[in-house]
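Lab notes, practical 5.
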Amino acid sequence: MTPVAPNGRDPLVKLVAPGRRAAFMKLVAPSRRALRFVSGLVLFAYLTGHLVNHALGLISLSAAEYGLEIASAVWQGPVGTFLLYGSALVHMGLALHAVYERRTLRMPFRDLLRIVLGLNLPVLLIAHAAGTRLAMEFYGYHPFYTDVVRDLWTAGSQGKQFALLAPGWIHGCLGLHAAFGQRKWWRAALPVLFGIFIVLPILSALGFVDMHREIVRFNPPGNNGAGFPRENVVAIAAWRDRAVNIYLGLVAFAFIARGVRWLYERRRDAVVDMTFPARMIRAPRGWSVLEASRANNLGHPSACGGRARCSTCRVRVTEGLENCPPATGDEAATLKRISAAGDVRLACQLRPTGPVSVSPLLGANGALLATATREEPYAVLVVDLLEREALARALLPQDLQWLLSGLYRAVEDAVRQGGGTVLHVGQDQACAVFPAIRNSARACARALEAARTLEKQILKIAVDVNTNWKASMRATIALHLGPVLIDPGQLNAPGSKIAVAVGPAIDDINRMRARLAELCGGTLVSDALLTTAGEEPENFGEAIEAGRVRARLLATHVPQFARL
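Output from the prediction step:
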């Protein structure tokens, strides 16, 4: 029997320092996400080596032969063999399990493409295992690179070779982007990485063609199939076909099992009511919140494809928290990493057992709205359209709609370019925030740049309104920095974009807006925001007192005729 400590704890666990216990458990019992990631990384490294080996053909056939020797030493040794084929089996098994576990096949095209290409990857591995390792282990055939290229061209299989490599390469690239797409270093390096993802397969194809030309021109020596009887070739092909058929049978079984489970759940009539801000959804028990949301076209974001890695699908459980199983494994680790509140869960992992009400914390475009239930610093930008009633009397409804659409589209474009989020768009107001939690100087500078962009757009629209309708349009822009508490409301409601923002900064900016209304237009920026952005407030216009806020009137951006 395993000895037990007097306190009832496993002595092996006791030996592990508390700070290292989580890492120890991950090592001895890795999660499915970790297994999927590590096995996929091994397969991607193997595939990358293949492409690089082909690309070496652009140098010479000898360079490609040397590359093959290195690859063989890595992958044909005991460790390499275990890693390669073990990773292939684990990755394939997890992929089939993911297909079975998925309640709905409605998903973004990127995720669908990754799944389809991933299901094609084992066909490549089976063909490679049959043509190389099986021939080597059972029949003692060790081909040179010359033989490989010559055989593929002779059999007319060169196109098939790259057709098999392409799905695996694209699947791997999409998988890496799903795993690291939210990391700053990945986004910074993405232009370079994208170039590599595109260029390497092209170089590989050119190298393969160049090697064939060298073989035709100089006819370098090789085995030329010597000592490899025809019956062995037939036996290998038969083994390959059987393995492919078995794999295709497993894929079919996974989809059939999904269908059987769907019929069982429907017959049992076990459903769960999930209330979103837009509407209430009745989903079968066992569905995740993300699956229910996507099945009903609510536009729920999920950058990682529902693997508990990115946290973009997170929701706040407003009612029915007792019907939510506790977060474990990958979900718990991700929530801990983002310091999520106790009522925040990942929609891709949350499978409620009873009625719940949830509110997504990210918009359909992935813009951040809230991460916690405490005040945090934001640069706040508010645009107000003054005297909308007068404009409504001067313009036809269609013309007024055009004006408002153009104005608020300009707001959304300027805010989005600056990395901000539009919280609210109404008939005569738009409110946006720029998170200043990590880098307040950059947030303030981007908010200030967005305001300058809007000044130009507002002036252009005002001129158009006066030219076409002889009417006056006045608008104001207020900018301030301070603590804000954001509570997402009817975020996904059709035709609306609403979020409740409260806090000292909102109170201050409301006083600034009232002062701007008295001035009949302009841009008012608080000294706090200017100073944080690295600017000298004295260099920016007239000093204005708005309650307890000292601000600067940067511009009026209202043409003279519009002030009459």
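Observations recorded by the TA: The two ends are 93 Å apart (CA to CA). Residues 445 and 533 are 5 Å apart (CA to CA).
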